[in-house]
Amino acid sequence: xxxxxxxxxxxxxxYAADADGEPSFFGTIGEHEAEDRATFERVxxxxxxxxxxxxxxxxxxxxxxxxxxxxxxxxxVVVSTTxxxxxxxxxxxxxxxxxxxxxxxxxxxxxxxIILWGSISLFHSLLAAxxxxxxxxxxxxxxxxxxxxxxxxxxxxxxxxxxxxxGETGVxxxxxxxxxxxxx
Length: 184
Known about the structure:
9-stranded mixed β-sheet
């Protein structure tokens, strides 16, 4: 079975975006292209919520960045009850699915792992449904004090898989939800 990996930039105090909803702190950890390339070698599908899809489709299909061709080549699946279609510039459009059962079916397909970037509300739903196999946090050395938190106030046990320096000043932390039967 494919693994669903949530990967997110986060501040030391647990925020994925500042008070304006912007990821203004991404540049605080330095260059990380090699890590991103390694991620794209292990995944073949990107899962997005509707809000993150709208942000990404306005950027990635035309972005001139070393990882843009890798991201644009991925199969993209958008979980949304409002979108009828999800074009992706000149690339293959994303598939729109309506519910978490479709994500469960996606995980059961043959293939590489599935990556979830951003999409915090979707992440919370997937986590509550037991569909997240790994949480990878790219911790940036910054305290925001306010913003959009990665985790809800719901209690969650995590098992540490890995912790190491990342980028020039960050820390990479990988966790498995406690009690998960999947092991890497």
